[in-house]
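step=predict obj=Cof-type HAD-IIB family hydrolase n=277
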Amino acid sequence: MTRQEIKLVISDIDGTILNDQHQLSPELKEQVARLQERKIPLVLASARSPLGMEPLARELGLKQEPLAAYNGALIIKGDAENYQVLAEHPLDRKELQKMLTLLQEEFPDLAINLYSGLDWISSQLNRWVQLEAEITGESPQIKEDLLDGLDQLGAIHKMLLIDEPEVIEKVYSYLEEQDFKELACYLSKANYLEITARQVSKELALREIASYYQLPLEAVMAIGDNYNDLPMIRLAGLGLAMGNSPQAVKEAAQASTLSNNQNGVALALAKYITKKK
């Protein structure tokens, strides 16, 4: 059976288009320019916020393409400062309030971060939060008691918990034992625990973006490196795993490419779409 021609590419950011120094390669920029010559959109899908994604999109020359932020909890188009919401799936308020209460009681030293649109509110400015700020280029608002004034915030799209891997493992196990019907937890790194609305996933983001472009799923190529990328990798017409992916992610993908430090995405675009290295 002949594979359908790829007309849309959806890619993760960290560990995928970025190398371990959090940089984009000249080879990738060249391949993205070749995609644009063929009028094939490249859409970035990430756990990052819009503000953490837009500089990379701008550096790649992606001006009209949507951004799927917070793993698809918020999909926007346009400048981050003046964007149009294409789709959003915020956290349930009652369950969020319950989870925050439990976390502040059981893990008082945990760095808790809330993301609402462009706003990043953190419970403390420790080394983990400072490192996240350096990686994303954003600055959090510090508020020790996140429950205070919670009702005044707009839609909250994601909560991020950061600490040592062994602490996050305990937090993850604790939250999984609680009765949260509307919220879902997943590890994006060994020391990063993300909480979103249960229906949020990169699979849903892929469906919504493909619908926006009025393209069948078979015409989409999805690229990622970690477990939270698995839903879109499985769903896409061509799902690719990075060479730095865990073995389980590689096994679920149709194919794999080299690592993020070896221009894996640029090579995949050349192999499957532009045919030029």
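step=describe
The first strand starts at residue 8 and ends at 11.
step=end
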